[in-house]
């Protein structure tokens, strides 16, 4: 299957659910009133594209605009200044990037127990902001990934080096993990594990869609070593 065809297929599948209006975060609000959003037709354009996440043995190609873009922008642009996020970030600033990943994963896992959105927020699916999840002390896989992402940003990580990947994990089913690009390569922070895993070594997770700063990718596998022909399987 050609990469162009994969992108077109994904765009058709997502267009029915995608909102026409985009969102961005307004000015920093007072304590207790974080994350107020302005409903504006806006898509970040900083002129710098994140590194393509060819991880888990896959090849990633641009997905264009997807259903999840607005969700990712909302949670990735809020709560970096939340007191609980900042407090966690302060504990890892002096560590190496790899040590920061391990410490953040461990600390967030201690503070946030896994729970379904139906139990915590009485809705089927909602990506909570980092501060909300920390205050609640519970969240599902994407909520935990969002907290880890925002803590790392508050600790000084570049937003272009942090991604959320949606896929399937053996024995789990649908799953979301955080991808972090450190100097030594891509690492995965999976709430089912106790430590970061090198993305090239993880054989249980199969990514389908990855969201990054201003861009998203769909994953496929190279056919006969060709970079121009990909399979979505």
UniProtKB/TrEMBL annotation:
<protein>
    <submittedName>
        <fullName>Transglutaminase-like cysteine peptidase</fullName>
    </submittedName>
</protein>
<dbReference type="Pfam" id="PF06035">
    <property type="entry name" value="Peptidase_C93"/>
</dbReference>
<dbReference type="InterPro" id="IPR010319">
    <property type="entry name" value="Transglutaminase-like_Cys_pept"/>
</dbReference>
<keyword id="KW-0732">Signal</keyword>
<feature type="signal peptide">
    <location>
        <begin position="1"/>
        <end position="21"/>
    </location>
</feature>
């Amino acid at each position: 299957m050609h990469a162009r065809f994969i992108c077109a297929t994904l765009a058709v599948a997502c267009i029915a659910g995608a909102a026409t209006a985009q969102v961005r975060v307004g000015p920093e609000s007072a304590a207790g009133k974080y994350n107020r959003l302005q409903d504006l037709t806006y898509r970040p354009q900083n002129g710098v594209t994140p590194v393509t996440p060819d991880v888990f043995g896959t090849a990633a190609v641009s997905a264009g605009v997807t259903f999840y873009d607005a969700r990712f922008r909302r949670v990735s642009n809020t709560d970096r200044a939340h007191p609980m996020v900042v407090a966690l970030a302060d504990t890892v600033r002096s560590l190496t990037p790899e040590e920061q990943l391990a410490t953040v994963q461990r600390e967030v896992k201690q503070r946030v127990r896994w729970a379904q959105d139906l139990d915590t927020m009485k809705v089927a699916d909602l990506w909570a902001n980092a501060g909300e999840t920390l205050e609640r002390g519970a969240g599902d896989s994407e909520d935990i990934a969002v907290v880890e992402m925002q803590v790392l940003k508050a600790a000084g990580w570049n937003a272009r080096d942090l991604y959320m990947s949606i896929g399937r994990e053996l024995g789990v089913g649908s799953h979301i993990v955080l991808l972090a690009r450190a100097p030594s390569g891509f690492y995965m922070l999976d709430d089912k594990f106790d430590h970061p895993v090198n993305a090239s070594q993880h054989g249980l997770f199969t990514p389908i869609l990855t969201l990054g700063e201003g861009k998203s990718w769909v994953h496929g596998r190279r056919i006969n070593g060709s970079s121009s022909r990909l399979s979505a399987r």
